[in-house]
## 1
Amino acid sequence: MSARETSPLHWSARYVGLPWLDGGRTVEGVDCWGLVRLVFKLERGLDLPDYGEIPAHKLISVARAVTAGKEGEDWQPVVKGLQRAFDVCVMRLPQGRSTGHVGVMVDATRVLHVEAACDAAIVPLSHFTIRERVACFRRHRAM
């Protein structure tokens, strides 16, 4: 049995507090897509596309690609209310209408995400910082 299988911590606890780093893709620091990629790699053994070494301000294109179900239809829409762990939560930018931020669902009601304003954190979908920003949910076909 691996340490991960015997650990009393929920998988998501390993990512809480990871620092935000523009273009970050490792435990040393991540941007929102970097966090999603890291979780999928370490928890599910799935290598998501990197979309190049892009800075956070260009992650709008990543969020839109996931929203549109691009990358060979890898991202399937999830009906709101039926989301589950490892679904991707696509959010609008703060004070904006366009999507440009992503996080990973911890369970049906909480999302793990990171932004320049804060280190990686788990927040309920009802939290004032994101409740009006949630645009949709997507599930990778491998899930």
## 2
Amino acid sequence: MNWLGKNNRVPEMAMKPIYLDYNATTPCDPRVIERMLPFFADVYGNPANGLHRQGRSAAQAVDEAREQVAALINARPGEIVFSSGATESNNLAILGLARMSDRTKRNGIVICAIEHKAVLLPCKRLKDEGFEITVLPVDRLGRITLDAVREAVTERTLLISIQAANNEIGTVQPIKAIAEIAHEQGAMVHCDAAQAVGKIPVDVVDWDVDMLSMSAHKLYGPKGVGALFVRGGGRSIPIEPLYYGGGQEQGLRPGTTNVPAVVGFGEACQISGEVMPHEAVELAQLRDLLEMQLLAAIPGLAINGDQLNRLPNTSSLTFPDVDSDALLLNLPEVMLGTGSACTSGAVESSHVLQAIGLNRTQAQSTIRASLGRRVEANDVEFAVARIVSAWSRVLAA
């Protein structure tokens, strides 16, 4: 197949900006938007007020959304606490549990080196408050070893918080095995699953986690809404709220419920549950096509992460002899990432890439392609052509 088209030109049908940054955020699915619209102007009641029709209708919609979110991760509706997103959920789980704990008995928190900053920074704060933070290393593929978990988790460990899948390199961690080790020592288990939910099967019962964070905008829902799964419900685990108010969400997340966003989150989860089996296969095929063609065209290109156990849509690519910023500046038609969207613009190299052994130069020569629901084969071929051309121009400059 001549992926550059006739006479080595990109087909006209592909001549459009191509978005390959779905791990940063996703567009709202049109079905999600359609589901949300009535809750801006027609069903506008406060779900906390059940004394009139508007309030009851809103509450019913929130209950339905809670069921949809719970179903996607095999939880019970009462175990879902809505939040503003995975960042808030991570903070609520980690800070909330730690500040309600008896630190004379359990004072340890275990995380890994490639966690999102929404986990790293709350733990940094807890270290300042006297907690003992253990950061597990990862190998060159971004994997945590179970032996390291066994060594780190003791009878003094309060919590282990490990991400399900990494946002930059896509590596998936063995959460079920990690939870088993932690529970043998009586420690709690939290999982940041923001990148996993909607892309791979997530089952809180099978994984046996105590808390799990998720975010709607990572799975074609609206921004500004997410959830924290709490095993047994919000009052079953001692968690101190981050702030106080009207007592919504079982007292863990007060404030008037954002009904349109919650409804959209529920619809996005419903859709993801239906399409994920075939969508994951299709995205993996497109990702492999991208990598195969780039590897054939660019000598010395390297793929980061665990290629046997990673997200189906994610590819972390280290380019030889070029800076990623320069490469992206020469790629106005293709939207890619250089790492986590939450740290874009930072001067320092990605902590994830450093943790897997890349030096500063290699880290600054790395881009992330993350594919999604709107990407087709011709988009990938167009992107490959543009990337190869841009790499050649930067290399020659």
## 3
Amino acid sequence: MKIAMGNDHTGIELKNIIKEFVEGKGYEVIDLGTNAPESCDYPVYGEKVGRAVADGEADLGIAICGTGVGISLACNKVKGIRACVCSEPYTAKLSRQHNNSNVLAFGSRVVGSELAKMITEAWLDAAFEGGRHQRRVDMVMEIEKR
């Protein structure tokens, strides 16, 4: 399984930690983030992650900026993306089980590396439950068409 990862300048260190963590779990990582410490624009990297997932280049995505909010907003502008900002593992797990999220976002200024690993693990280990949740995900995706 391939994971697209993207980040702005605030997320370089955490991206590298999570990249190593994810690769250690057997996933292939497509690194679409910056590695330059100079200030850059998170929408560029959010769109890259969103497009990689939407176009099938990657199965899932992980996006990191200062809070996770800005980069997730950019991801969610790409048709077919359901990015969720998570600051703890329970929301990450439920975002996959109930919302079929395909991009995980978190903030390098919000969560530390160990918590980010727990969030990532909970998200990757969870699976979409379908059933009543499918109808709701379909409703959300219909909004995109209008």
## 4
Amino acid sequence: MKKTFPLRVPGKEGPRVLEMIKLELTKYVKRERKKTLPPEMNVWDFQCKVGSESTSASEVAFPDLSKAVEAVALAGSDEVYVEILAFAGSRERKASPTPYHRRDQ
């Protein structure tokens, strides 16, 4: 997804516009995660870029995506550019914890 969102929409307040942008980004990520993974891959990873323009966009970690969009809005920009690219990755699963044994009294 490569898209430029307007931050100033006539008839809508700024916080409401930000929430609409975040909702659209969340919907996109959910759609991407529903796609089938290639063999030997077990997770979808995302590369994200956020900025006021496509040329000035900087890379952002996926968990910090909404904070980066808010930062661009607080900087006074009229629009925000968001780029999210999904790719399949593999991660090791955490070892399951040992079961809790209860002492009978």
